[in-house]
Amino acid sequence: MMETDPQGSRAVGLDLGTSRIVSAQCQDTDILFGTQLNAFTTIPFSKLTEGVLKKERIPYVLQDSEITVYGDESERFANLFHTETRRPMRRGVLNPDELTSATMVREIVMLVTGEKNGRGQKLCFSIPAAPLGAGEAVATHQSQMMRMLCDLGYEVRSIPEGLAVVYGEMESSNYTGIGVSCGGGLCNVCLSYLSVPVFSFSIPKAGDFIDISAANARGESATRIRAIKEESFCFNGHFASKTHQAIGEYYDEMIHALVAAIRDTLAGVQSMPKLNRPIPLVLAGGSVLVSGFRDRFEKQLRETELPVAIAEVRLAPNPQHSTARGALVAAMSEI
Ligand SMILES: Nc1ncnc2c1ncn2[C@@H]1O[C@H](COP(=O)(O)OP(=O)(O)OP(=O)(O)O)[C@@H](O)[C@H]1O
Ligand SMILES: [Mg+2]
Asked: 279 CA distance to ligand 2 centroid (A)?
């Protein structure tokens, strides 16, 4: 096990995800997670509305004579006004089309950590591995987030998301194995050997790709597709409707691209450590939650010739917490 602070009270793990922001903090022997949608919606300002929001403890900020509601509550208000929520991030990085994206992320971070000031605590946040051609966007995102979190009063470092999954879920194999996070904007992958990353990469096909593609194919909104996917989609051999079928086809496309990228990246590694036994692979992230996903992924993986042997493919026990948990492990190892 990595050297950690037994109380861990001075450390925070933060998953800055396209879809959700998740914090992890130690309390006694437990890890406490805070989670909120990384989304916002605006409603017209009135003193009365503001008063009601305050009373109901709904998180909001005032911007340009509008009220911006953010986090989980944004979805409720978007539904109420028949609009879509807006998203501060896209494909793993700050959304350049949203002027207030950095402000929104800062507000949501304060909400999930329950702190307005970091008080010098060690904080480790996840960053995506850059998808092909997006290196500069990831570097800019990383430095903007670093600055924002330093300004909040934290002592900050970052960790690639795939490596965070390894730290969060692979203590039993001495942090050796492949961590995979299938999220909203990206699927992130990392091969780690004894806690040292051998490679990290990401592909831009994940939950949002499935939602948008199936929405286009079915003439529906992406929000509606996401709700159907989360509530009733599963891989069980047949599809209950044409919408389920479309979701299934794009899920397969994502799995296919992911397995092909794992194969190609493994094959291209110049100095592969000598792995003397088959290594495990862990699946994390919200997109692995659909029933039957693990089997579907493993089938595709086993049909693909890989240069390393995979011992087992397992689901993280709580896939939406893995990245924040691993970021916490990294933050605590610095104390
Ligand atoms: N129960 C569920 N069934 C299927 N999909 C789900 C479920 N719950 C969440 N998802 C999907 O998981 C995705 C979000 O996953 P996650 O929270 O891991 O992403 P993220 O970390 O915010 O994004 P990224 O890592 O790409 O930046 C969304 O596409 C969402 O629709
Ligand atoms: Mg993620």
From this structure: 23
